[in-house]
Design brief:
Strand content of chain A: 15-25%
Largest sheet of chain A: 5 strands, antiparallel
Shape of chain B: elongated
Radius of gyration of chain A: 51 Å
Strand order of the largest sheet of chain A: 4-3-7-6-5
Largest sheet of chain B: 5 strands, parallel
Order of helices and strands of chain B: HEHEHEEEHEHEHHEEEEHEHHEEE
Distance between the termini of chain A: 38 Å
Strand order of the largest sheet of chain B: 2-1-3-6-7
Oligomer: heterodimer
């Protein structure tokens, strides 16, 4: 919705802007034209100059040549009236122009027309100089303004402009709101579609076609989502089923192998062989349960029993379990907890996290049969705590390292490194991140970041 | 429970084993017999189990979760309606674990298949002991043990050494008892704090160190170079060389 408001805002602004620009442009053109017109008038001989070029000498009036050609060019005729209203000189005077005028005649044509000829007058030393143009060539209008108005024009023009701008904005807002109202359900529909909710928009109105398109897309998306879910469900259920079916026969294998292993009547070599069967059965058990857990974590079907977990305690506990479980002397496990990390609390599934940490230790032990030093370091940062598990062993093979750090390969439950896949999935399910590295000094490092619990109040 | 009176040993318990796999039933019977449980009866489904439960009134039930004609959870509810018989579940699915842990069904314990015989007998003994000999267990004498030349009696909370006789304080007693129960193994500082103060380690690290130091003064011939109560750096402590009397 925020983006829609932005669109509306921009629309109103640009509409009002366009209106204002047009207004100013028109105004500017008008002003420019008026100035140009008057410039033309001024460029040529003014009525006064023409009048002054009519010179009397010994009772004869002569017009300078340039003035004469100017009158030919711009005007049609000219005459000079003396103070009694008689024509005492003329040039090209049309026959329908009288030769004698009264004071009222003069007063009436001065500003307007003489027998429909537009005329211009100027005071001459011997009377009144009159210039006439062809009939219908010029429209004459006498402009009059109240003085107050002319005084206020410099306030008035900007005020009118501002009023226009306000009106333009209001109109744009009105139309914009209408558009906004019709776009709003569409925008909401697209948002809902992104959240994988079914969308059913009304297809009436101006934007009905777009609504139809959105509805269709939504239906298709829902179908795809359902199909994907069904496939994931089927896969997880299938894996769960297979692992269930393996467990009962494996119980018999493991049970009898264990009994044979403990049978004092059997020769030691046979008992050792039974021991191998028992141990391998236990490995299959772990694999089956890992496979099941990994597939459930992958498709978000593993319920998380979320509780406050003190991570430092969990690390010590797992390390102690490994050491108490008869870990060979060629391995060492060191736990280093940062001073402020001792009480770091995260919200998580204690059992799954325990399993993840145990998987990391087990991985280091299994892949370094000649022994290694394992170090778990925990620090507390802003809102997160980080756990680094390093060993001094052989490190990860390159291909596995790439797979582990590439989340898009997560769907591939590789038979290799299932334990580490579970680590990554578990941490992801807890909203954390996992990185796998090889150390330049040899060995590997796994860095886990987990968000601290909101209730980490003892911080 | 009247039958408790007749029972001298958990091996006298009559057990009902319910599983649809005949070979597994056979194996479990053998395991239990070898362990000393002589009265073991078995059923293949809910129907048969109900009949046997009514006619034989067993003292303990080992119950598979998925049975051909119903599930173990509802069967347990039926049994529990009229008796407090202890039930140990056998489960073949991780999903059952979620239900067993999450729903508080009242099952006494559960084992996931596949299991080792030793695992089964240990869990079963624990379940039966809890159900039939709880009082006896609690009244059982506390251990008396030696640490080299030093004698410790957890009944009186006294330590006897050539330096003399010391009385353990309540906290020292709780710590030593916890360490002795897990003798030979590392006990994390967290577990020790839970045992002595019923709280998390955080905030008690120094207190714990002080109490361990005092304990060493009583049970170690040379407290500065301990031989029995060892520090495992970063993790906790370990009691070694304890011999039960």
């Amino acid at each position: 919705m925020k983006s829609m408001m932005k669109i509306l805002f921009r629309y109103v602004l640009s509409a009002a802007g366009i209106a204002l620009i047009l207004l100013i442009f028109n105004f500017a053109v008008l002003v420019a034209w008026i100035i140009q017109e008057s410039a033309i008038e001024q460029h040529d001989y003014s009525t006064g100059q023409l009048a002054n070029s009519l010179i009397e000498s010994h009772g004869v009036y002569t017009l300078s040549e340039s003035a004469a050609s100017e009158i030919e060019k711009q005007y049609q005729w000219a005459m000079l009236l003396d103070d009694t209203g008689r024509v005492i000189w003329s040039k090209n005077l049309p026959p329908d122009v009288p030769l004698k005028y009264t004071a009222s005649d003069v007063a009436s044509f001065t500003r307007w027309y003489l027998n429909d000829y537009p005329v211009y007058v100027w005071r001459h030393s011997d009377g009144l100089f009159v210039l006439g143009r062809a009939k219908g060539s010029t429209w004459k209008h006498n402009m009059e303004m109240r003085h107050e108005f002319m005084d206020k024009i410099f306030v008035g023009v900007p005020a009118v402009l501002i009023l226009n701008a306000v009106a333009a904005i209001l109109l744009a807002l009105l139309f914009g709101m209408r558009l906004f109202r019709s776009l709003k359900p569409l925008a909401k529909g697209i948002e809902e579609m992104a959240e994988k909710q079914p969308v059913e928009l009304s297809t009436r109105g101006l934007l009905g076609d777009i609504a139809v398109g959105i509805n269709k897309t939504s239906v298709r998306l829902m179908k795809q989502e359902a199909a994907l879910n069904q496939r994931d469900n089927a896969r997880t259920t299938w894996i769960a089923g297979v692992s269930h079916d393996i467990r009962t026969p494996l119980s018999l294998v493991m049970g009898y192998a264990s009994q044979l292993e403990d049978d004092p009547e059997l020769p030691p070599a046979k008992r050792e062989q039974a021991g191998i069967i028992r141990r391998q059965s236990q490995r299959i058990k772990t694999l089956v349960s890992d496979l099941n857990l990994a597939s459930k974590l992958e498709y978000n079907m593993q319920p998380l029993r979320l509780n406050p977990v003190i991570l430092a305690e969990l690390l010590r506990q797992v390390a102690a379990e490994f050491l108490n479980d008869g870990l060979d002397n060629c391995y060492s496990i060191e736990v280093i907890i940062g001073k402020d990390a001792q009480n770091a609390v995260i919200t998580g599934d204690q059992e799954l996290l325990r399993r993840a940490v145990a998987n990391l230790l087990a991985n280091s032990i299994r892949h370094n049969p000649k022994g290694c030093q394992i170090k778990m370091t925990m620090e507390k940062g802003r809102g997160i705590c980080s756990l680094s598990v390093t060993d001094s062993g052989a490190g990860f093979p390159r291909a596995i390292l790439e797979n582990l750090n590439n989340a898009q390969y997560s769907a591939g439950l590789q038979n290799h490194g299932l334990g580490l896949t579970i680590v990554r999935q578990t941490i992801k399910a807890h909203g954390g991140s996992t990185e796998f590295h090889n150390l330049s000094s040899g060995g590997c490092e796994v860095i886990i970041c987990l968000p601290l619990s909101a209730a980490d109040t003892r911080a | 429970m009247g039958m408790v009176m007749d029972m001298n040993d958990i091996l006298d318990c009559k057990l009902l084993m319910v599983d649809d796999e005949p070979e597994l039933r056979q194996m479990v019977k053998e395991i239990l017999r070898k362990e000393g449980f002589m009265k073991v009866i078995s059923a293949a489904d809910c129907h048969q189990a109900r009949e046997l439960f009514a006619s034989e009134s067993p003292d303990g039930v080992i119950l598979d979760v998925s049975l051909p004609d119903g599930d173990g959870f509802s069967l347990m509810r039926e049994f529990r309606a009229g008796s407090a018989v202890p039930v140990l579940f056998l489960s073949a699915r991780d999903e059952d674990e979620d239900r067993l842990l999450g729903l508080g069904l009242g099952a006494d314990d559960y084992i996931t298949k596949p299991f080792l015989p030793r695992e089964l007998t240990l869990r079963l003994r624990a379940v039966l002991n809890r159900a039939y000999f709880p009082v006896v267990l609690k009244q059982k004498e506390k251990p008396v043990f030696s640490l080299g030349e030093i004698q410790v009696d957890l009944n009186s909370g006294l330590v006897y050494s050539n330096k003399g006789q010391f009385t353990l304080t309540a906290k020292e007693f709780a710590l030593l008892e916890k360490l002795y129960e897990n003798r030979g193994n590392i006990v994390t500082g967290d577990s020790l704090c839970q045992a002595a103060w019923g709280d998390d380690l955080y905030g008690y690290e120094n207190t714990l160190m002080v109490h361990i130091r005092r304990l060493r003064e009583k049970i170690e011939p040379e407290p500065s170079s301990p031989r029995h109560l060892l520090t495992v750096r970063g993790l906790g402590y370990k009691l070694t060389g304890a011999d039960r009397k």
